[in-house]
Design goal:
alpha+beta, L,D-transpeptidase catalytic domain-like, disordered N terminus
């Protein structure tokens, strides 16, 4: 009963019932294989994540299976993707495009934070043990549901080496 009352109170106040607020920043540390949700500079939630199959270094081109590094924006949500919900990362930015153009390559795109491949969520106990995406950041389906609810479009994301 208390949970229901708090959920209603938070909703009426425009706050997210999962944490009581929406996070204002997402931080990813590739070497730690962690993603942190932050609010006013404080870590409020931590997730173990996996990346592209070739995770070291900044994404340079389509097909390199690297996850980009730097500051981006979570610019839209996609609930009809090939994965259980996805939040798009604004890669490539202008610098990424310019670098790719100088090297005569396509920078790639469609980099997301997402859940498991549709129909395979039950395998996350296994798939989250190794880097398997094409450059995205993967979490379990349960985790993407939580993240989806507290991360608004327009939230900045910093991806560190």
């Amino acid at each position: 009963m208390r949970y229901i009352v708090l959920t209603i109170m938070f909703s009426l106040a425009g706050l997210n019932p999962a944490f009581g607020f929406d996070v204002d920043h997402v931080l990813v540390n590739k070497s730690e294989k962690k993603m942190y949700l932050l609010f006013q500079g404080k870590k409020v939630k931590e997730y173990s994540v996996v990346f592209g199959a070739n995770p070291k270094g900044h994404k340079q081109q389509e097909g390199d299976e690297k996850t980009p590094e730097g500051r981006y924006i979570l610019d839209y949500k996609k609930d009809d993707s090939s994965f259980h919900k996805a939040i798009h990362i604004s890669y490539p930015n202008e610098k990424d495009k310019s670098t790719a153009q100088k090297h005569g390559v396509n920078p790639g795109g469609s980099i997301m934070i997402h859940g498991q491949k549709n129909g395979l969520g039950w395998l996350s106990w296994f798939s989250q043990r190794f880097n398997w995406t094409n450059g995205c950041i993967a979490v379990t389906n349960k985790e993407i549901e939580e993240i989806w609810g507290v991360v608004k479009t327009g939230t900045p994301i910093d991806i560190q080496p």
